Amino acid sequence: MSTERWTSATVYPDMWTDPDDDPREALANPVGEKETLWNYLKHYRITLEMKCEGLSAEQLARRSVPPSTLSLLGLVRHLAHVEQSWFQRILQDQPDLPKLFGKSPENPDADFDDVVADPAMVEDAWATWRREVQAADAWLAALPEDELGRTVLRGDDVIPVRDVLVHMIEEYARHVGHADLLRECVDGRVGQ
């Protein structure tokens, strides 16, 4: 093994993705504030996918940190809901869109609580998440850099678009941290 190419992946191949195979490496060297924020968001989205990679429906639905109802599948559903809420309901001013996964004031945690180990539910969750990510990315692609300071309303709050992007990064970072622990409890896999 060449010490020039030493990485954690060469020593711990079951834990780390080699940089040559890491899909997040393509996000290096962004230009401008919008691309930088967007790249961080993309990085965490890819990390979520990597954390769930190779698991069965039962493993994805497992609530592995009792008494919490968190599961990897619940996180995918929750983040699809978050993508829709911020990018479509708030930023694109579409407040009347139906909430995903049966979320309601009566059932605010449906994205987590209603998870079952069903391959069809897993497929639907990923398809919904990918659709919402694609819609968010299309909106971001069309957003001029100089509109990051433009404000939107959320209830009585006036929020700059920039703050929404930073919040989305924070939301993913937090939940990818949860995914680290959930995945380790499911099958012992750790790493980035």
UniProtKB/TrEMBL annotation:
InterPro entries cross-referenced by the UniProt entry: DinB/YfiT-like (IPR034660), MST-like (IPR007061)
Superkingdom of origin organism: Bacteria
Protein name: DinB family protein
Native source organism of the sequence: Promicromonospora alba
